[in-house]
Structures are given as structure tokens and as C-alpha cells.
């Protein structure tokens, strides 16, 4: 187990995150303000925005600029950027600083082809020297604490993450989040936390190391906390349509108790709030469409839910959607969740 960190507050720069923080991973079209609000209510300690293209930011593209929106109720929050051009990255860092987040995060982990082919995201894992040079320039260009999210390597032949962690720390980053897969794996197979644990236990590493990948239950969170000695856990896909995962893990880590699964009333209320905030923030059509990925998880495990779910992911009228959600609550108000 790493050092004697159990009673030590984890900090990113001067930002106190508590003893073992749970972080919401930056996810495109997921970790937006409406969803972040729900996760904050359920105990998430720090959140990151969707990743933002630096080229979009410096060109004042509406979609990129909108992603800078952050609200006091969700702090501390980090704004994440991605890109491959040094000048664009540093110019974007200045724009991010004006938005006044607590942290500026650099995405060196996105495996999506359209990002990677430009040498950004996980694409930069093929050029570690460039990664370090870009990071050094960004650290020097902003007063914000700079953090990084990345992967183990490009493929199994380039697992340089231990070297990367030391070099990025040396140029001044304040925390490192590591997804336990290579770019080649995308999101397939099981995340390997072995190298993450090696970094967390490296006596030369003094910045927080957050592990990411496959944490989908309180029991697994505790197991990985103890086995790998990380300073905190970043949760991504397990939170989609399931903001209660933060409450469940936090309670289990603190008390050893398994909290009850959210009731159908809680699920419907969360879905309603999410939909309403999504419409307010994105506009009616986009807000409705981008909510669809969440419905499956909001109501997973209820027998016979498929017809309702099919309506929720095909309907465009918000009034009808809210009526469907009311029907779901009425239909399942006295039905136990089928899954444990």
C-alpha cells in the first residue's frame, strides 16, 4: 500500500479533495453541467468537463465555448482540453483560465480515431517527448494547477506510463489520472491497474495518482484502493445514468455499509431533473437527444421496461417524455428492482 496516505488529505495544488476522492471522468456528451449537477448531489468530490478542442476554443466555435460553462454548485471542477499544436494549446489555456475553473486538465487518453489521427488525445502516446514538451508549455502558460489524464500506452509494446508519470511530474503537473488500458484496447477487455499501482507506490512520485477503469461497484472500489494504493478513483462509464454510484462507493468506503439501490421515485426524479436541465442548457432538440444514452441505466433491471425505454429514446416532445416518466414511476412504484 502506498505510503501512509490513509489519513492524509489529497490535494491538487491548494485544492483539498478529502482523504480518498471520487472523481467524475470527462466524457464527451456525458459529463456536461446537467449530469455533473446530479453527480455532485450524490457525493462526487471533483468533476471534469467534457473534453474541449483547443482549435475550437481559439476559433470561438460555439460548441467548444459552451463547454466552458461551469457553476459554483459543482466546484471544484476541472476544464479538460485536447489538441496537438503547442501554440493552440497555450492559447487555449489562457481562455480556460478566464473561465475560472479550479484545474486545467489535458486529455492524452481519448482513443477515438478522429482525435488520435491528429496526434491529439491518446495519439500523443506515440511521441512521449512531444507530450512532455506540450505539458511543460501549458504549465508555464497558466496560473491554474495543471493535471493530465492518459492511458498506459499506445499498445502493449509501448507501456511507458511509469516514465511518463515521472516526466510529467517533473514539468509541473499537480495530479495524474490513468486509465488502465492502452489506446489499442479502446474500451475492450479488462483494465489493468498493475502499472497504475506501481506509479502510486513509486517513492519518487509525490502528486496524487487517480486510477480509472472498470470501477462499477463499492466492493471493487475498496479492493482496488487497498490493492493498488491510489489516492482516489475516477469513475466514467459506470456513472452514466447512475449518479448514485458515487454515494454507494463513498458510503461503503467510509462505513462498510451497502446502501439501498435508488427507488423508482429517485430514478424518475433524477431522469426528470436531468432532462429538464439538459433542455435548458442545450436547447430542446439537442437536450432531448443527448439524454437518450442515460435512460437504459436509469431504469436497468426492471422487468418489462423495454417498451417505455423505446419510447424515451425515440420521442422528441419534452411534454410527452415527462408523461412517459410519470407512467414509469406509476407502473413500477410497487415493483422491486430485479437486479441486486
What name does CATH use for the topology of the largest domain?
Answer: TIM Barrel
The helix-strand sequence is EEEHEEHHEHEHHEHEHEHEHHHHH
Overall morphology: globular
List how many beta strands DSSP finds. Answer: 11
CATH homology superfamily name of the largest domain: Aldolase class I
Strand content: 5-15%
Q: Span from first to last CA? A: 31 Å
What percent of the residues sit in helical stretches (DSSP H or I)?
Answer: 40-55%
Proper CATH architecture of the largest domain? Alpha-Beta Barrel
Largest sheet: number of strands, sense, barrel closure: 8 strands, parallel, barrel
Low-pLDDT residue intervals, each spanning 5 or more residues:
1-5
Q: How many helices?
A: 14
Give the spatial strand order of the biggest sheet.
3-4-6-7-8-9-10-11
**Average pLDDT score:** 93
Chain oligomer state:
single chain
Structural class: alpha/beta
What is the total number of structural domains?
2
Strand-helix topology:
Elements: E1 11-12, E2 15-16, E3 22-24, H1 33-41, E4 46-48, E5 52-53, H2 54-58, H3 62-66, E6 77-82, H4 86-99, E7 103-108, H5 113-116, H6 128-141, E8 146-151, H7 161-170, E9 175-179, H8 194-200, E10 209-212, H9 218-228, E11 232-235, H10 244-255, H11 264-282, H12 284-298, H13 306-312, H14 318-332
Parallel strand pairs: 3-4, 3-11, 4-6, 5-6, 6-7, 7-8, 8-9, 9-10, 10-11
Antiparallel strand pairs: 1-2
Helix pairs in contact: 1-11, 4-6, 9-10, 11-12, 11-14
Describe the fold and architecture.
It is a single chain. The strands form two sheets. This protein has an eight-stranded parallel beta barrel with strand order 3-4-6-7-8-9-10-11, surrounded by five helices. It is built from 14 helices and eleven strands. A hairpin with a 2-residue loop joins strand 1 and strand 2.
